[in-house]
Write a structure and sequence with these properties.
65% helix, mainly alpha
Length: 55
């Protein structure tokens, strides 16, 4: 992944943006669930790459 792609992927949310209404709240909650699932998947992959015997 190139540097610019990483920058855009991890760009923080801009201040002053608010979710309003039930649909917006559901969208934010879904985004949170997606991010948590991605973090969990990353954690599983990272820990599966750990190994004690390097020989």
């Amino acid at each position: 992944m190139d540097r610019q792609a990483v920058h855009h992927e991890y760009e923080p949310a801009r201040a002053g943006r608010w979710a309003a209404g039930a649909d917006a709240v559901e969208a934010v909650e879904q985004k949170a669930r997606t991010l948590l699932a991605q973090a969990d998947a990353h954690r599983r992959v990272s820990s599966s790459l750990d190994h004690d015997d390097a020989g």
